[in-house]
Design a protein that fits this description.
The protein has about 300 residues and is an alpha/beta fold. It has helices at about 1-15, 20-45, 65-80, 100-105, 115-125, 150-155, 175-185, 225-235, 275-290; strands at about 85-90, 110-115, 140, 160-165, 185-190, 205, 235-240, 250-255, 295. It has a single domain (about 80-295), classed as Vaccinia Virus protein VP39 (Rossmann fold, 3-Layer(aba) Sandwich). Strands 3-2-1-4-5-8-7 form a seven-stranded mixed β-sheet, sandwiched between helices. Strands 6-9 form a two-stranded antiparallel sheet. Helix 2 packs across helix 3 (about 65-80). The chain starts with a helix and ends with a strand.
Length: about 300
């Protein structure tokens, strides 16, 4: 019996392109399952039936944590328009907030990588996938700064209004977001906050065009939850969701979502975190609280 099983496995391995075929089969299964979830949510919305809470909607297909499910929920409530995404600091398809949209939901867009090797790897990844090989996303290698971000967007023909924008630089994110919103208006924005501050202060790191957190401390980066909420509120966005650990924040234009995506408070992002995780955040904050933080 074991020999027969071994012979079958060897035969399967010899099938031409078996890895690609299995991968494509898995992708089709993902697409079918997600579309079932999406249209169930859409049916509830169209029937004026309150859908399950967004905090229970998270799951991961490619995202690092539960962001893929939250993103799908948001679009079920507000719909798609041009299906264009922008991802600044796209490092790898596995762990990104845009990969699921690109592979399973027909999105296209611009991915900005800070490393040339990341760019090459990602280009090969999307060109070899049957969902994106004909029209892969545009991928550029650029060290994004306040001074060059507008040109990066314009030179790559990013539309003025896009469906989705993800930002996760682990650096001067606050300032880059501020500049991006002067040029384009994403309908949905997800940005990573520095949640060691919880909701105690509205702060960000001091801007530098060559900022590198490891020159100071690995936790000296980004901006606090209140800082991002305040910035986005000033640009007519509302906070509607957060990931399971409370640091990835989801914003939509204030005119979108209605009663299905009500605005939530900054404190909601941390109120259900377990006490041991809160203790860990407090411990990490004490190591950096006296560094050069800027009140905003």
């Amino acid at each position: 019996m074991l020999k027969k099983l071994r012979d079958i496995l060897i035969a399967i391995e010899k099938i031409p392109n078996i890895d690609r075929l299995l991968s494509e089969k898995s992708l089709v299964a993902q697409q079918i399952t997600q579309k079932q979830v999406f249209y169930q949510l859409l049916t509830l919305r169209n029937s004026n039936i309150t859908p399950p809470p967004i905090k229970d909607a998270g799951f991961s297909v490619f995202s690092q944590f539960d962001e893929d499910g939250i993103i799908l929920y948001i679009f079920a409530m507000i719909g798609f328009t041009n299906k264009y995404c922008l991802d600044i600091a796209f490092a790898n398809p596995n762990g990104a907030n845009t990969t699921n949209l690109l592979l399973n939901w027909g999105f296209n867009g611009l991915l900005v990588c800070g490393d040339e090797k990341e760019k090459v790897f990602s280009e090969n990844y999307f060109k070899s996938n049957h969902s994106t090989w004909l029209l892969p996303p545009k991928i550029v290698n650029s060290w994004v700064t306040v001074d060059n971000i507008k040109d990066t967007l314009l030179q790559n023909y990013v539309p003025t209004v896009i469906d989705f924008f993800s930002l996760d630089i682990d650096g001067v994110d606050y300032y880059i977001l501020q500049e991006v919103l002067k040029t384009i208006q994403p309908r949905v924005v997800v940005v990573e906050s520095q949640n060691v501050w919880k909701t105690e202060r509205s702060v960000t790191v001091r801007y530098s065009s060559d900022f590198n957190r490891f020159n100071t401390h690995e936790d000296y980066h980004g901006a606090s939850i209140p800082a991002f909420v305040k910035l986005m509120k000033a640009n007519d966005y509302k906070l509607v969701a957060y990931n399971k650990y409370g640091f990835n924040l989801f914003f939509i234009k204030e005119s979108l979502g209605g009663d299905y995506l009500p605005e939530i408070k900054a404190s909601d992002c941390i109120e259900n975190l377990p006490s041991y995780y809160i203790d860990e955040l407090d411990k990490r904050r004490k190591e950096i609280e006296n560094l050069d933080w800027v009140e905003v």
